[in-house]
Amino acid sequence: KGNVEVNKLSKVFCLSRRQYIRRFKNSVGISPKKFANIVRFQKAIYFQRMGLSWTRIADECGYCDQPHFIKEIKAFSGFSPQELLSRKPPTKLMKYFNPSQSLSHFYNTIYL
Question: Would 1 be classed as within a structural domain?
Answer without folding.
Answer: no
